[in-house]
Design a protein that fits this description.
Blueprint: H1 2-12, E1 15-20, H2 24-35, E2 40-46, H3 49-59, E3 63-66, H4 74-84, E4 90-95, H5 102-108, E5 113-116, H6 121-132, E6 137-138, H7 140-149, H8 164-174, H9 179-186, H10 190-204, H11 209-218, H12 224-227
Parallel strand pairs: 1-2, 1-3, 3-4, 4-5, 5-6
């Protein structure tokens, strides 16, 4: 009986949620959507990965939604830091960056959900509720794509072979961040950042930053609408 009461109490709790996205209009739309969901309480909004990490530390929310393609450290690094800090916060990636290797990398890094901005509004609500319960939720289109990736030759991307940290550095290079800025944002030495760069070049068989960016364009990893300031 005691455990049953505790479960009932948990089910009645408001899901304290932070929405992180560098596009203010999109944040406003999500907040408007969730305002009508009685079990969800928006406690803050963030326009960068850094702000999402800091607000998570201060407010200890149940769920944070993150856009991957935010300036600065971005959503993947914010995900890593939020989970590493053990706030007890679950993370849902709510993003326009839906091409490989983003979904697989985010889920491997510990995200409870992956919802694309092309998805349905009810998917956002479902992902937040399932994350609060410690369960996973993936948009239907992403789930199908991940399933096809299990078959040889379907949906592959050379970026799949990068580790989580290598992918983060690659994204920052692609978004024209200099080594000094990457070093400061990721708390790594410039030497370490350059080591990651050269390892990325070797794995992807490119000669430098320009070829890396061209490869990213080829595989749909660069979208001006994602990288524009909000």
């Amino acid at each position: 009986m005691v455990s049953a009461r505790l479960v009932a109490q948990q089910n009645n709790r408001m899901i304290r949620t932070i929405i992180a996205d560098n596009h203010s209009l999109f944040r406003a739309g999500v907040i408007c959507l969730l305002r009508d969901v009685k079990s969800v309480d928006i406690v803050a909004e963030a326009n960068s990965g850094e702000e999402a990490v800091e607000l998570s530390r201060k407010l200890n929310p149940h769920v944070v939604t993150l856009e991957i393609a935010m300036p600065g450290i971005g959503g993947l690094e914010a995900l890593r830091r939020i989970l590493k800090a053990e706030y007890g916060t679950q993370v849902v990636m709510l993003t326009g960056a839906a091409e490989p290797p983003y979904p697989a990398q985010a889920l491997r890094a510990g995200a409870c959900g992956f919802v694309t901005k092309r998805g349905q509004p009810e998917e956002v609500v479902a992902a937040i509720k399932r994350a609060y319960s410690g369960k996973r939720f993936v948009s239907a289109d992403i789930a199908q794509r991940l399933a096809f990736q299990s078959f040889e030759g379907e949906g592959g991307s050379p970026f799949d072979q990068l580790s989580g940290r290598e992918l983060q550095v690659a994204l920052m290079v692609i978004n024209c961040q200099r080594v000094a800025a990457i070093s400061a944002n990721l708390h790594l030495s410039a030497k370490t950042v350059n080591s990651y760069r050269y390892r990325i070049f070797e794995k992807l068989n490119v000669s430098g930053d320009v070829e890396l960016a061209m490869l990213a364009v080829k595989y749909g990893m660069i979208n001006p609408q994602l990288t524009a300031a909000g």
